[in-house]
Amino acid sequence: MKDNQSRPRNPRTLAVHAGTRRSQYGEVSEAMFLTQGFVYETAEAAEARFLNASREEFIYARYGNPTVAMFEDRIAAIEGTEDAFATASGMAAVNGALVAMLKAGDHVVAARALFGSCLYILEEVLPRYGVEVTLVDGTDLDAWRAAIRADTKAVFFESVSNPALEVIDIRAVADLAHGVGATVIVDNVFATPTFSRALELGADVIVYSTTKHIDGQGRCLGGVICGTQDFVRKVAEPYLKHTGGSMSPFNAWVMLKGLETLDLRVRAQAEAAERLARAVEGHPKLARVIHPHLASHPQQALARAQMERGGTVLALDLAGGKDAAFRFLNALGIVVISNNLGDAKSIATHPATTTHQRLPDDQKAALGITPGLVRLSVGLEDADDLLADIEAALDAA
Ligand SMILES: *Cc1c(COP(=O)(O)O)cnc(C)c1O
Predict the structure, then answer these.
(1) Quick one: pLDDT at residue 116?
(2) φ and ψ of 278, to 5 deg
(3) Which option is the CATH number for 263-396: 3.40.50.1100, 3.50.50.60, 3.40.50.1240, 3.90.1150.10?
């Protein structure tokens, strides 16, 4: 992309072009540099590169790779952050962002409603290394206010929680955190880069599992940490490149191609998700339908203010509990039973017995993970076909 205009580019344009590096052949589609190493012309050149490599000089794929650099620059351009570091999975990004900046004696405040593996890092890993962690109800600003202290170093939350779709006020929590100089780390997977401008709302570091919407076709694991150049290159990169959390060039290539169609895919998926949520809300077999942009969502106003669309996921709470949820899942014909989300294929998940099985019952209840809860990630199938499938499965439930 030539820089021949002063007009700032739209994220959709950036998603197609930003970060592209062409080889001497001038290929149109991004090249996959499937190499872990790089040849130096001379011993002196090797020495110089180890001493101080520029962004266009590579040493070893754990440190960086041209295809991975294209992906990092492209997602940073879309998010509006100065830089990004691509990781082997979403969890490598969450763990990397937290562990790289924390040390024994530090204090972290996090929302309790978290993806199971995120909760493992905050509840099990960080305390083992002397980091004090306070978990709060993320939707309760008074709880954040009470928990954040003068010595709090970081706050962490999912802007939309998995699986009960609680929405956290990024700007309000960021203001509280910045009042004590703490770093705001937001896991923005459910909100997606398309619908959320987390940076403008005050997030300092934004992490994604690119396994979800950015790949969008269920092929590869990946993650990314977006932030300032100082955070990405001086804090996150040294930790990740030396501990093995880097993204593979092959996966970076898949993610690059995924970014090109991200906006189109998630807009279509979000439109279908909202339509399905409205269509089944009030169904006699359902105790509750959860979707951030439904009027019945307790934080609908906040969700509308901070997310352009409600996202691609909804949750259905079957009134008949686990048995009804299982009958519903087993009767689905198009929607598959699995645990990814953001995929082109619609996926239904029973969190209580799969992704959140590890949690004790009282914690499940506190997070809204009832026995009847089914998380539905809406894909790219025809929305009428999906609605017919879901209605038939509700009849069977
Ligand atoms: C899936 C997910 C992760 C973990 O990502 P992986 O790519 O599976 O490691 C982290 N946070 C949220 C909110 C997720 O949905």
Answers:
(1) 87
(2) -65, -40
(3) 3.90.1150.10
Domain boundaries, the chain: 11-258, 263-396
Instruction: Give the end-to-end CA distance of the chain in Å, rounded to a whole number.
Output: 53
> Is this structure's pTM higher than 0.90?
yes
Q: Is the CB of 189 under 6 A from ligand 1?
A: yes
Instruction: Report the separation in Å between the CA atom of 89 and the middle of ligand 1, taken as the mean of its atom positions.
Output: 8
158 lines ligand 1 (CB under 6 A): yes
Q: pLDDT (tens digit, 9 = 90+) per residue, 30-57? A: 999 999 999 999 999 999 999 999 999 9
Backbone torsions φ then ψ of 25, nearest 5 degrees: -90, -10
CA of 91 to the centre of ligand 1 (A): 6
> Would the CB of 326 count as within 6 Å of ligand 1?
no
Distance 250 CA to ligand 1 centre (A): 19
Look at residue 6 in the predicted model and tell me its pLDDT: 67
Q: What digits encode the pLDDT tens for the residues 211-257?
A: 999 999 999 999 999 999 999 999 999 999 999 999 999 999 999 99
Model confidence pLDDT, tens digit, residues 168-217: 999 999 999 999 999 999 999 999 999 999 999 999 999 999 999 999 99
Q: Indicate which atom in ligand 1 lies nearest the CA of residue 222.
A: 7
Q: What angle do CA 37, 40, 43 make, to 5 degrees?
A: 125
Q: For residue 227, how far is its CA from the centre of ligand 1 (angstroms)?
A: 18
* Dihedral, 186, 191, 192, 195 alpha carbons, nearest 10: -120
